[in-house]
Known about the structure:
Number of helices: 9
Strand content: 5-15%
Amino acid sequence: MLKGLLFDLDGVLTNSAKFHLAAWNNLANELGITLTDDQLDSLRGISRIDSLNLILKYGGQEDKYSEAEKEQFAAEKNAKFVKQVETMTAKDILPGISKFLVDAKKQNLKMIIASASKNAPRILTRLGIMDEFDGIVDPATLHNGKPDPEIYIKAQQIAGLQSNEVISFEDAEAGVAAIKAAGQFAVGIGNKELLKEADYIISKTSDLKLSEIETVFQKRK
């Protein structure tokens, strides 16, 4: 029986992912690294340091900087991202999400945020939907980033539920892999080819319909 929903944040509830990618792209350029669109897209859904390490790897600079220097780079990127976050309002909630959250509340489903972003509380507050959620995984408590299942296992634990009682939502390939590794039902939002391992795939958030997802969820149990 469905009892809870676990959500990634960037690219699922709001479009803040574009701010992340722009900030990372700017940093890469400052380091003399030119990222392809596919390389930039691969940064979706993974932690700050993991993203930086991947950028350095793409540029052949993985051994060039100390851990302290990497932390400084990550901090500079985050500062630029936070400036963008402060401009966000409820208008930045992705289409269909507000109604979807209302429908979930009507069913008394527990809702947890499973995002690698340390700025999740700040973003949710700016969007005006912080109180809609029953908990947020603290990225500082994680030992492994997506595609490791740790974040979704923790989100499930916060909800006090079993893996067969939750549906999890992602827009990134690494995120879908994390959900499946946690033994949970995965809803992918975006590119159907990249998210093909998901149990249910839609191209955009406006296509989210809780009743339809539940129907597939019940059949897949």
